[in-house]
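User: Can you recover a sequence for this backbone? Please restate the input before giving your answer.

Assistant: Of course. Working from this structure:
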């Protein structure tokens, strides 16, 4: 058994005028919702002055509503349904309003149910498990740069300054056919007591070692999120920054009867 604590923060950064990121998380209270587990969703929008802002919020709202209303017991099928509903809604919205043409968003959705973590994502927002030894990236970026690195055409160091480093190859709300990646992991609080979800506004500005050190030195999820955003801004804040941290704490099944 474990106790779950979650914190989250978002910031426009130092260079952008509009925050196109959006996130929400929901920890169920009633028994019906508890069967679906906790859901964390983050989206990083793109497209025009207001398009990305609209797309990211639509995607997250559609995912949460769809996930908890879907009666399917298969977690990934419920999440996939949410992705497709959000995808179709954004496409329709951009079709109805020509000023929003080209808008879309990354999206990462993570369900935490019993001792399992179910992660689904499109785009280059990331999820990491965090242990004392550092960050373990669960997701694989859907980006042009990531494809070049995987083919050995450029190094990770070269990718940091590549002119096409912001080009993503998959997004919600761009094409009718949406391909979603799924990852399932067992929650092991003693090994990886933290889960980090973030957009590129964090990981492009703050290195993995600093992120891990910040997490284990501060411990509290909300304090961690606020500090990581401050660090990203201190390092330039070139993009919107969104950070969500979940902490898993072991809880004994047995209660001591005597002091």
């Amino acid at each position: 058994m474990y106790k779950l604590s979650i914190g989250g923060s978002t910031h426009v950064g130092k260079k952008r005028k509009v925050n196109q990121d959006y996130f929400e998380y929901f920890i169920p209270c009633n028994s019906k919702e508890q069967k679906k587990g906790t859901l964390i969703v983050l989206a990083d929008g793109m497209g025009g002055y207001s398009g990305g802002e609209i797309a990211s919020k639509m995607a997250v709202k559609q995912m949460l509503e769809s996930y908890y209303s879907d009666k399917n017991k298969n977690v990934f099928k419920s999440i996939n349904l949410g992705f497709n509903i959000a995808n179709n809604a954004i496409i329709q919205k951009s079709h109805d309003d020509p000023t929003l043409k080209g808008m879309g968003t990354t999206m990462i959705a993570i369900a935490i149910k019993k001792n399992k973590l179910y992660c689904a994502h499109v785009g280059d927002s990331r999820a990491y498990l965090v242990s004392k030894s550092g960050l373990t990236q669960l997701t694989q970026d859907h980006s042009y740069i990531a494809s070049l690195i995987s083919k050995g055409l450029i190094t990770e160091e070269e990718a940091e300054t590549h002119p096409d480093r912001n080009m993503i190859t998959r997004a919600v709300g761009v094409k009718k056919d949406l391909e979603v990646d799924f990852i399932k992991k067992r929650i092991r609080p003693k090994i990886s007591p933290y889960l980090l979800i973030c957009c590129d506004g964090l990981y492009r500005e703050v290195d993995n070692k600093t992120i891990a050190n910040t997490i284990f030195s501060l411990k509290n999820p909300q304090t961690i999120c606020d500090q990581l955003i401050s660090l990203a801004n201190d390092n330039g804040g070139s993009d919107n920054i969104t950070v969500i941290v979940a902490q898993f704490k072991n809880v004994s099944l047995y209660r001591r009867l005597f002091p």
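That completes the design. The first helix runs from residue 31 to 34.
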